[in-house]
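Example 4.3 (complexes with small molecules)
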Amino acid sequence: MFRAVMLEREGDEVRSSIRDLVDEDLPAGDVLIDVEYSTVNYKDGLAYAGAPGVVREYPIVPGVDLAGTVNQSVDPRLAPGMRVVVNGCRMGEQHWGGHAERARVPAGWVVPLPESIDTRTAMVVGTAGLTSMLCVLALERQGVTPDDGPVVVTGASGGVGSVAVSLLARRGFVVEAVTGRTEEEPYLRGIGASAIVDRAELSGKVRPLAKERWAGGIDAVGSTILANVLSQIRYGGAVAACGLAQGMDLPTTVAPFILRGVTLVGVESVETPLDRRIAAWDRLATDLDREQLASMATEVPLSDLPAVAARILDGKVRGRVVVDVTA
Ligand code: NDP
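Answer. The structure with NDP bound is encoded below.
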């Protein structure tokens, strides 16, 4: 018997409860995992709230991330006892996810953890941190270097933003952190930000081009803020866009692209191929500042999940939430 959060739809409402399940209840898959830690991402918040377009079929165990040890596996690459992580892959949307003490998934989703990353650390990183790493790799592919000038991170106090600030600072970038919570300045400076930019400064009318300010950026919010960031990117710079916390729209013009050669790179973590996931986790193993990462984490038990899921949608969660699924 193991415990799992179960989301069920009743009419227009989605309810969550903690259930006792057995292995036979789990969906088919190649690898049975004893889950130790999971996380709460923005998408989990949407799933608990029953937001349209996230969960395809109820009942479902939510949780887009999990880390634990292999219990049984048909894949020789994944031996019992091996520490592993699974991020995205439509877990918690179409496939039962990580808010449970056990999960069964296809072998192609499972990444063996690098030696230096334990299962709890893996979940402080989670999908948010993996996405931040994919954004950093995307900026590197575009040739953005610390010598080019300061870079900007939006939604900086959130999960994606916090890890992005830390990873970029560790690579030697001067990082300017955009936040609506300016009271978080000490936290943001503690994880590597050199300057704090009030979100309000980037919420006004979007000009096609404004004064060149940043060599690049990582954007977790979309909408007007991303448009205002694009208009202030220096000639030849690049922005990696991965989120929509402010909105899905992008009220920009082509001016930054055709007059300054700016590149907008889309970053998607859910369907990222296994080899890219493994490469990103390898880089996380070397690039993460463990002290900064620890300062981003709050730990909650399974029973706190519905409340935390609601708070993340209100933009009230700072950094990363780790779920000790055995607590
Ligand atoms: P969080 O809620 O932890 O962080 C989002 C942050 O955005 C908030 O902390 C806040 O930062 C800022 N924010 C919130 N509301 C607004 C608003 N109305 N206007 C402007 N800024 C706002 O979420 P995550 O970090 O987990 O995810 C961030 C985004 O990235 C989400 O949209 C998520 O769906 C997306 N995402 C995409 C992935 C992909 O594969 N492309 C993977 C993972 C996440 P502050 O208070 O500092 O301003």
